Write the structure tokens for this entry.
Amino acid sequence: MRFGFWDQKKYFERTALLNNVPQLRWVTIERTGTPDKRLYPIVPALIKSLTDPLTDREKYAGTYMPEKPERYIFEGTYDEAVEFFNATERVESADAEISIYTDGSPIIPPTEARVAKMLTGTSLSPDTVVTDARGEPVKFSRYETVTVEKVAVIGAMAGCKPEYMPVLLAMAEQGGGSTNCPGTSSSIGTVYIVDGPIAGEIGVGARHEFLDYGNRANVSLAKAARLMTINFGGCIAGIKRTDAGNPLFAVAAEDTPNLPPGWETVGEEFGYSRRDSVLVKTSHRGFGVNEFAPGASRRLQDGIGSIADDLGVLGKPGPHNVLEWLAPRIAPLKMNSGHTFFIVPNLAKPIGEIFPTKKAVYEWLFNNFKATIRDYQRHGWWEFATAIGDRTEGTNQWGYTFNELYEKFGDDYKIPIFGSRDPKENLIVVGGGGADESIWHFNGGRGTAVGVDRWR
Amino acid sequence: MKRLFEIVLAALLPLGVTLAFAGTPAQAADEAEEPVHRFLNPQGIPGPVEVRGLAPRLDTIKGKTIYIAVCEAGPQTGPFLEQYLKDTYPDTHWVRIQHNGFGPTNPAEDGELLAKADAVIGGQSW
């Protein structure tokens, strides 16, 4: 039997099914409280689970064949369909009515005609199963698979245009928009970067408000990714996704024409050429928007103002590296992992005059900003990842685990903040308009990339 | 005359009933034009699963070896549970394995448990 948190029952049921024991007995435990209040009271139920005789259902061994969902989910007028798809259910852990089929905002009901129109955006047949690059069917919530038609249904619901289909299918190839399903929505969220020719073909924004609303491609594609999460794997808030939620969910493009000379595009960073259309999916853990006062970074480049004073370059015009001021101030939200920076072009330009490539920036960050093992041990992640006499966490570029580093070099040993084994765990995306105040920073790695062209 | 009246009334009666239920002519036109569609299903497709029956239950926990395998972030559950069980059920042999982080999800894949345990209490709690 197993015990676990009361609001994670659906995760448990899904995990038990995927481990071939859907009838596994389960006891809930509270998240907080001293052992005498949260732990000892469940002990009788634990013992009972081990000793109560099995029912016939619990003894069953054989093939569980779930019913394949009907191709059509509803028949009625358009207005009736709007109400159907807006249906909600009461979710106890959310203490709210939560949408069953949508992200909470209304969708466009997917008629056959609308879906057929969406399917004109790809040459693939509707019954093609969505697979990864190895040809393996992609599994949502580690279980359900989908077809090209299902992705077209989602695209129609989200208000996407048919020409968005290759990007939608690439999103499905990457498992839809969830940061973790089934699981906790405890990270900051997901940002997709659409790179290469298709970004311009379908009009994905790269400049003002590129992480915001207003652009149909950016916003409807982000909505579609959320709808995939909800419908493809049943990842409904409070059911199979629990926690505070992911506040950031965006689709954007990099402002390639305004990259500093010599800097790689996001697609090139993942091994593609500028002729390839690519979709990068980042899932960030921590969040840190770093916005300077208006004109502060320009003053730095002119050698005046407080930041110039801080860096010791008063009276000396730039180029100056604003990351030299920023990096030590970034709270180590999760040390020893890759970080992503979204930098507006006017801020990237002077950095590009100092570092000829993005790779050079990553190497500078990786090699120059460190924390001690002692700092890491006081971080909360230490006891999560490491163990006393048990599994240890692999770590640095020399192949030592944290425990080995600690035993060999002591707790003053320094580990990188920006990355774990490789500077290229970091990522820079240039975009966001003409101002010079903003760098958005997140940690949690650089994400993954897939080619979009195979879905055309 | 009376017979003629009855014939006309019988002929008009179905028309009257129809109009009564159809509402006004404008409403009838609107309802008749409201098309009905079929809407496609956005939900994913589940596949087959080979189900194993649960392991047989214990007739008693006395004299048995029961493993406690709790995935946790730091020792806030496992050691307390182990001590409490030892104190409360001293005739049972309790063995605790600690897995940090998310740990293994399936004790049935753990060789030590399969070889030595009469039962397993698994858990995820931090």
Notes: The radius of gyration of chain A is 25 Å. Chain A touches chain B through 83 residues (CB under 8 Å). Residues 387-397 of chain A have pLDDT under 50 and may be disordered.
